[in-house]
Design brief:
Residues 335-454 form the Polymerase A arginine-rich C-terminal domain. This protein is an alpha+beta fold. The protein has helices spanning 2-10, 14-18, 32-35, 44-55, 65-71, 87-93, 151-157, 180-186, 195-201, 204-216, 222-225, 228-231, 240-251, 256-265, 274-280, 287-305, 312-333, 338-353, 361-374, 384-390, 394-406, 412-423, 426-436, 448-456; strands at 28-30, 60-63, 80-83, 97-100, 106-111, 118-124, 165-168, 173-176, 188-189, 219-220. The longest helix is centred in the last third of the chain and has 22 residues, at 312-333. It binds adenosine-5'-triphosphate (ATP) and magnesium ion. Adenosine-5'-triphosphate binds at residues 64-65, 78, 80, 158-159, 163-164, 202, 204-205, 249.
Length: 466
């Protein structure tokens, strides 16, 4: 014990330097028989990180959402570790460790195994805001924040009581600073401290409240919920990249439909994404759009919950599809031919989003590819189907088309035809193409050869082939 203390002083341990005024508020020690965390759900690498830090004389715990999920019996998607070692001290203990971040300096420790590398995020206990006065703006927003503190202070800086529990894999004990275990039992999501003050410090916490309520099925505690109606507008002061990341987390949480309903109930959806305004206002004429988005999101939730991947580009393509379809139809009604009408509609739909939260470029190109493929699924003769299958993003376009069939926008026979076509040998594919040759959209579609022949006799317009 004494050597551990001396070791700390020699290392100029941050805990020794900052905790003098904050030693009160001992946590509740929750034993295994109460928290029932299954050690098999732990990441071996996260355990390795806590062990290494503890063997070097530091305190180290698994913390945050991982403990919440473990206590709920869910395997966490990632693991965070909190420690009293400074980022530099952490970095020295691991081979693959990288210091990242400016506002919150943390260490990413990477482990390479069979599948994807696993990153364990290690953060140093943070001090209370009062100890970092000069870093807080007039409106209460946190600006800069690299003052290390005690574990007790660190717990008070976290958002919800169920996110402020610390698990020590060595003793299988949970340290519970803010009654997280009791709230878990009551199925309540409760903000630590004064909720209004905490939302002013970081308005993104309002979106986190809705996301966690949807994910856990817990109810927002009345005092946690109350200030949101008044403070919701502060969300628009959050930098758009951070807001975008949070919305993406919400949509990819596996509980997106419940979370969107939660946003709507809290009055938070306005101006986040123009399409959410559009869809959730549920005017009579948008019922069809609503159905499409609901089925698309349910499909996304199901994929995520069963461990399948979902691309953000695909997801945004579905959310904006009703709007795009509307624009596409309007353009055709104006006399623009099919494909140019679709491309104009894509530009219009994307432009309409820029008044709200901008969808990032990397997703925009995915969305355009998925959308532009849609008109090509109609053509099921000649070389068209073969060319379409060869497109690099065919799978995403195909899944999207199946979704349109599932929602009733397209005849399910179209989806069935393509599913058979993909699974067939060349002779069967010929037969499939012959079976639809005389359907609308296909009779006018020439093979490349025929088109050339027609061109020789100077056909004035090729728009019929579009
Ligand atoms: P998940 O990873 O499932 O989305 P999480 O709770 O782990 O949920 P992270 O964003 O990974 O969420 O954050 C890890 C922990 O850091 C949280 O559990 C919480 O204790 C703390 N935290 C994160 N963001 C905030 C915030 N804006 N305000 C206060 N504490 C936060
Ligand atoms: Mg997390």
């Amino acid at each position: 014990m004494i050597t551990k203390f001396i070791k700390r002083i020699l290392r100029r341990d941050p805990m020794i330097r900052h905790t003098a005024a904050h030693t009160s508020g001992a946590p509740k020690r929750v034993p295994k028989k109460t928290h029932r965390i299954d050690p098999d759900l732990l990441s071996k690498n996260a355990v390795k990180v806590t062990q290494t830090l503890q063997q070097a004389g530091y305190d180290a715990f698994i913390v945050g959402g991982a403990v919440r999920d473990l206590a709920l019996g869910i395997g966490p998607k990632d693991f965070d570790v909190a420690t009293n070692a400074t980022p530099e001290q952490v970095q020295k203990l691991f081979r693959k460790a990288r210091l990242i971040g400016r506002r919150f300096q943390i260490v990413h420790v990477t482990f390479f195994g069979k599948g994807q590398p696993e990153i364990i995020e290690v953060s140093t206990f943070r001090a209370l805001l009062e100890n970092a006065g000069e870093h807080v703006a007039e409106n209460g927003r946190i600006l800069r924040d690299n003052v290390w503190g005690s574990q007790h202070e660190d717990a008070a800086r976290r958002d919800f009581s169920i996110n402020a529990m610390y698990y020590d894999p060595a003793t299988e004990t949970v340290l519970d600073y803010h009654g997280g275990m009791a709230d878990m039992q009551k199925k309540t999501l409760r903000m630590i401290g004064d909720p209004a003050k905490r939302y002013r410090e970081d308005p993104i916490r309002m979106l986190r409240a809705i996301r966690f309520a949807a994910k856990t099925g817990f109810t927002l505690d009345a005092a946690t919920r109350a200030p949101i109606a008044k403070l919701g507008k502060l969300i628009h002061d959050v930098p758009s990249a951070r807001l975008f990341d949070e919305i993406l987390k919400l949509l990819m949480s596996g509980y997106s439909w419940a979370a969107i309903q939660g946003l709507k109930d809290a009055g938070l959806h306005h101006g986040l994404l123009p399409l959410l305004d559009h869809i959730l206002d549920q005017s009579a004429d948008s019922q069809e759009a609503n159905d499409f988005v609901r089925i698309a999101l349910a499909n996304t939730d199901e994929r995520i919950q069963s461990g399948k991947s979902v691309s953000a580009g695909f997801l945004f393509a579905t959310l904006l599809w009703p709007d795009l379809l509307n624009n596409w139809k309007k353009n055709i009604a104006k006399g623009i031919s099919n494909i140019p009408a679709l491309h104009d509609a894509m530009d219009e739909t994307i432009a309409s989003q820029s008044s709200g939260m901008v969808i990032q470029r990397r997703f925009e190109s995915d969305m355009r590819e998925i959308w532009s493929m849609q008109s090509r699924f109609e053509k099921r003769v000649g070389r068209y189907p073969y060319r379409l299958i060869e497109s690099p993003r065919f799978r995403a376009g195909y899944d999207f088309m199946l979704l349109r069939c599932a929602t009733g926008e397209k005849n399910p026979a179209l989806g069935e035809w393509w599913s058979s076509f993909i699974a067939s040998d060349p002779a069967e594919q010929e037969a499939l193409m012959a079976s639809v040759k005389n359907e609308t959209g296909n009779s006018a579609a020439p093979t490349k050869k025929r088109r050339r022949r027609k061109a020789k006799v100077a056909v004035p317009s090729e728009s019929a082939a579009d």
